[in-house]
Amino acid sequence: MAGTETAAVPGISAAGATPESRRFTAAADAEYLLLGPRAQPVHPLPALPAGVSPALIARAALEGLGLEPWLVDLGVPVAPAVPHLSLGQHPARCLSTGQALAPERVRALWQLGARWGERLARRQDPILLAECVPGGTTTALAVLEGLGIEAEGLVSGSQRQPDHQLKQRLVQQGLQAAGLCAPSAPTALLAAVGDPMQALAAGVVQAAAQAGAPLLLAGGSQMAAVLALVLAATPQGQRQAVVDQAAVVTTAWLANEASSDLPGLLSRMALRWGVEPLGFASSLRFRGSDCAELLAYEQGFVKEGVGAGGLSALWQLSGRTTDDLRGACEQACLLLRQA
């Protein structure tokens, strides 16, 4: 979980109907993820323009699979009222400033992520890495552009129709304010226009992949940007080992979205670094659902977040059916209405 003041820009995100409500999104998602729909959370899920938080999908999958997430607060505006690891950080500045993060903070987070990645790899278990960063698709675009990937129009967002022009304008402001030209060094780029999640996650992925651990990068554009940072920071001869171990895993709604292009984005990354990043999507769908909040996903709202795509794919990899997961989501939706 992380925060960026980029999320307060009007029209940049729908992870909360207003900039003020987006300050509570990460806390609410974390509380729902651990407590589920029957609880009375300190921070209820914020109202969205349409639909319901993808934390609902993630929680249904976690509960069915018998897994417990490890929650890390890298600097959210409001801390969740459930057990989590807090690194005592604060949200990043808006990327348009060109001074989103202190350089020493970027280096410390990347190094910490690398230590965690090495440690997790020793457990010989797959690692599923997810995020909750309102405004994070715009920092993802900034990182991709700064690394030399022409990503305008390819990056998704929580809105039904992401405002690509607004995102691109903020990105150009940030890169110009920082005096950066593509391609830029990953750590300098993160300091200028990134967010804390990207720095820590890149360290985890780089170290764990090189140690041979399989990784599911649960998300869309944001996890593609994390993978891009790792490829940029990894010597050419070691990049194949990274893509052999780490795959971007998302939802069917994002993978098939008309207003973004994750497959095209991964293809441009392949051309940039000479390796083929793997991306795939779960087949969970809500067509014909009686829950309007879930049907909104089929109408282009929300689409992804909180590891929903990766966890629903893990559900399928375990041999369970998406019909069962859909039923669990519908039951959770009904319970959430009654809470």
Question: Notable features of this structure?
Answer:
339 residues; alpha/beta; Rossmann fold; 4-stranded parallel beta sheet; two-stranded parallel sheet; 49% helix; 6% strand; globular
List the helices and strands and how they pair.
Blueprint: H1 19-22, H2 25-35, H3 55-65, E1 72-73, E2 85-86, H4 103-122, E3 127-130, H5 136-146, H6 164-178, H7 186-193, H8 196-210, E4 215-218, H9 221-233, H10 239-245, E5 246-250, H11 252-255, H12 262-273, E6 278-281, H13 292-298, H14 308-317, H15 322-338
Parallel strand pairs: 1-2, 3-4, 4-5, 5-6
Helix pairs in contact: 2-3, 3-14, 3-15, 4-7, 4-8, 5-6, 5-7, 5-9, 8-9, 8-10, 9-12
Describe this structure in words.
It is a single chain. Strands 3-4-5-6 form a 4-stranded parallel sheet, with helices on both faces. A two-stranded parallel sheet has the order 1-2. Helix 3 runs parallel beside helix 14, helix 3 packs across helix 15 and helix 5 crosses helix 6. It has one domain: 3-Layer(aba) Sandwich (Rossmann fold), CATH 3.40.50.10210. By secondary structure, it is α/β, with parallel strands linked by helices. The model has no long low-confidence stretch (mean pLDDT 95). The protein contains 15 helices and 6 strands. 49% of the residues lie in helices and 6% in strands.
